[in-house]
Design goal:
By secondary structure, this protein is mainly alpha-helical. It has 4 helices and 2 strands. It has 2 domains: about 1-60, no CATH class; about 65-99, no CATH class. The longest helix has about 30 residues, at about 30-60.
Length: about 100
């Protein structure tokens, strides 16, 4: 959208009037299919790469739940407390400590 406006503004291909501006946008419609195709391909590649890396690299860095004997509950109501409560539900023999 911005590149079409720039083409209309800088190049002499289309008249610099209120009728020339929409003509520039209408002329770009056949190329819009390639824009959508490129977006779909790159989205698939990026999400696929993220999923693959999440399964391979991140799985080696995960903490073993059996090693967690204490669960620290923070004073805030943020994601740390929610994560601590989630771990406590999964491992009831954990000890609670307040910080």
């Amino acid at each position: 959208m911005f590149s079409n406006f720039g083409s209309w503004l800088w190049y002499q291909t289309y008249p610099h009037t209120l009728t020339g501006w929409p003509i520039c946008y209408v002329a770009a419609i056949p190329f819009f299919g390639w824009t959508i195709a490129g977006d779909l391909v790159y989205t698939g590649v990026l999400f696929g790469l993220h999923a693959w890396l999440s399964r391979t690299v991140a799985s080696r860095k995960r903490v073993n739940r059996r090693c967690l004997k204490r669960v620290a509950l923070s004073g805030s109501s943020g994601k740390d407390s929610a994560w601590s409560l989630h771990l406590l539900k999964q491992n009831p023999e954990s000890k609670l400590s307040h910080s």
